[in-house]
Q: What sequence folds into this?
């Protein structure tokens, strides 16, 4: 089993709090920083063991991760064995379909050295903890950028800004996840933790990196009023369906719908595949028929259950720990169908290989009009939620049930989504070390 006393809380479990602040900083004085890291900061870091029980959860959970330039600034010269981490996220902007001009200036480059993740029930608690950390570290760091995340209010809690329930499906980590719910895929811990079984680059890892994980952070702005205005009826619900995908497989059109009850039931909300519902054997036929779910749907693009052999799909699992940021849509924004206030998803994903995880998902599957491959329609389109064709219109098949259900192979009736409703504001790649890894860094 895993040494959960040594693994930071966010990697396998998440922060389990309603608010989370991301604090991006640069290091001015490595010697002071390392000395305070050792004496004051490491004792604050929340472990996986602590976060799992309400009795041991701190008022404010604290995690800490470093970029490649941050490790260099601290005198850590080891190669961590991940080329994407080494060059930083800005170098991958075009590869993952971003327009670098939409990136926040703080992320556009490699100037961010590290990030504190502070999570609590209230922003006030977070601010108290941050003030204490800043007084400890003094001028040894400068905060370059902050992003305040928060669960949405009331009954929207647990839903991202488009309104879909999020944080449902995670891979099960062998030797850790218990219970494993129906539909969860058990995979080796080394897909997320360096140095564990099935870490694809295990021989290249410095010893001190064991049980650390690469944290991909992305600020993904969501244009909610624009998205909501997108022609209602068939298109809106089809998008919703394709995004959340939490449909009762035994329902057939037109009763098929997303059901809140289903979404909230862990024994059922993950227990499905994209194979044709009426076939006796799951997995037998899913190339000619998208009745269960459009080929291009977000959740099908990022977890093509039954479309690929598990040995092909499993290396691309990530653990997500995202939280919405920004306030609710105002009535003025709804009236004008135009975003005035920034809101979106503070996207966090953990993996042991950034290319196999985030980069592969975004560039080879999400933004690829041909994926899932081998379907009756060879151009199924990009992911309608987060796929992009350089910000331009996107032709997507299978989203128009009015046409689709009459003629399942009618590829002439693509839905055209005129613009992106998710815009990347950039991000960075970080390494979230184990607690002993943090001590190694402090001693470097
Ligand atoms: Fe997605 N959404 O609301 O539409 N995502 N996602 N995501 N996502 C998921 O199963 C969403 C993004 C994954 O195992 C759900 O927890 C939004 C990126 C993966 O079946 C919903 C944004 C990447 C899964 C959303 C966004 C992924 C997943 C269903 C950006 C990777 C698990 C709820 C603003 C590069 C799939 C759930 C599975 C699920 C939404 C971003 C990946 C509702 C709004 C960038 C692996």
A:
């Amino acid at each position: 089993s895993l040494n959960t006393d040594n693994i930071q809380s966010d990697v396998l479990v998440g922060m389990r709090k309603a608010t989370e602040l991301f604090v991006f900083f640069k290091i001015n004085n490595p010697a002071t920083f390392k000395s305070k890291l050792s004496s004051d900061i490491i004792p604050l870091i929340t472990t996986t063991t602590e976060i799992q029980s309400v009795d041991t959860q701190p008022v404010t959970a604290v995690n800490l991760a470093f970029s490649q330039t941050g490790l260099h600034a601290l005198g850590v010269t080891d190669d961590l064995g991940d080329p994407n981490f080494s060059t930083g996220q800005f170098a991958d902007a075009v590869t993952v379909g971003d327009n670098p001009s939409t990136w926040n200036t703080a992320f556009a480059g490699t100037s961010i050295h590290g990030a504190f993740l502070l999570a609590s029930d209230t922003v006030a608690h977070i601010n108290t903890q941050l003030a204490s950390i800043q007084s400890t570290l003094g001028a040894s760091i400068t905060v370059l950028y902050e992003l305040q995340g928060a669960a949405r209010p009331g009954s929207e809690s647990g839903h991202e800004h488009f309104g879909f329930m999020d944080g449902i499906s995670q891979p099960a980590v062998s030797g850790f996840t218990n219970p494993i719910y129906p539909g969860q895929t058990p995979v080796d811990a080394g897909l997320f933790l360096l140095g564990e079984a099935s870490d694809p680059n295990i021989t290249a890892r410095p010893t001190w990196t064991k049980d650390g994980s690469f944290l991909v952070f992305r600020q993904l702005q969501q244009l909610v009023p624009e998205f909501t205005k997108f022609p209602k009826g068939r298109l809106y619900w089809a998008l919703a369906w394709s995004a959340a995908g939490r449909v009762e497989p035994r329902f057939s059109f037109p009763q098929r719908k997303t059901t809140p009850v289903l979404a909230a039931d862990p024994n059922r909300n993950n227990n499905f595949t994209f194979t044709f519902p009426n076939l006796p054997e799951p997995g037998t036929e899913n190339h000619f028929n998208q009745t269960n779910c459009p080929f291009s749907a977000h959740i099908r693009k990022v977890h093509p259950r039954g479309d690929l052999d598990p040995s092909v799909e499993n290396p691309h699992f990530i653990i997500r720990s995202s939280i919405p940021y920004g306030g609710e849509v105002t009535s003025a924004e709804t009236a004008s169908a135009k975003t005035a206030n920034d809101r979106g998803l503070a996207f966090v994903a953990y993996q042991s290989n950034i290319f196999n995880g985030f980069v592969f998902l975004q560039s080879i599957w999400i933004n690829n009009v041909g994926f899932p491959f081998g379907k009756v329609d060879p151009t199924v389109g990009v992911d309608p939620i987060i796929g992009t064709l350089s910000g331009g219109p996107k032709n997507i098949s299978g989203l128009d049930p009015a046409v689709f259900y009459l003629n399942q192979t009618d590829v002439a009736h693509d839905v055209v989504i005129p613009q992106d409703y998710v815009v990347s504001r950039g991000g960075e790649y970080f390494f979230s070390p184990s607690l002993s890894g943090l001590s190694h860094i402090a001693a470097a």
Summary: The chain has a mean pLDDT of 88.
